[in-house]
Amino acid sequence: PRWPRFWETFGEDPYLASEMGVAMVQGYQNGPSPMAATLKHFLGYGMSLSGADRTPAWIPERQLREYFVPSFQACVDAGAMSIMINSGEINGIPVHVNRAILTDLLRDEMGFEGVLVTDWEDVKYLFTRHHVAHDYKEATRMAIEAGIDMAMVPLDFGFSDALLELVHEGVI
Fold first, then answer.
1. Which of 45, 53, 149, 167 could form a disulfide with 86 if both were Cys (CB 3.0 to 4.6 A apart)?
2. Rounded to the nearest 5 degrees, what angle is found at the Cα of 49, between the Cα atoms of 43 and 54?
3. Average pLDDT over residues 129-140
């Protein structure tokens, strides 16, 4: 009953979400006008403490793997090309800087090779809301090092500018 953003999920049943997710990935990517499917929102997005959008969640490892990983794994196995990241925090760590979730789990363990994209302004939120980075440049470095590929904020080139600076400086 508290599952937020119901218009962006198939619900909390891992089997149902897996079956419907795979069908959607196949429909988008193999349909008459193929396009990359983007899975949303990795990981644990629907179990926030408040039930509200973009708020913290506390999820034990067993529950994370039992209820949230299976549907994403099924869609990764079906060839999904993109994943949007959870805007909130899991167990006190913003997901956008959580290398254990984005790289160790998603890339290495689950085998995802596609594009990891933020939700709206989530890199900026690393210093304005989560307070884990000093500024946009540090937030960009942290997100890239955790596994983020692209920041979704149309018409704002802050992420790209910061990333270019970090590359020229040899930091990334």
1. 45
2. 55
3. 97
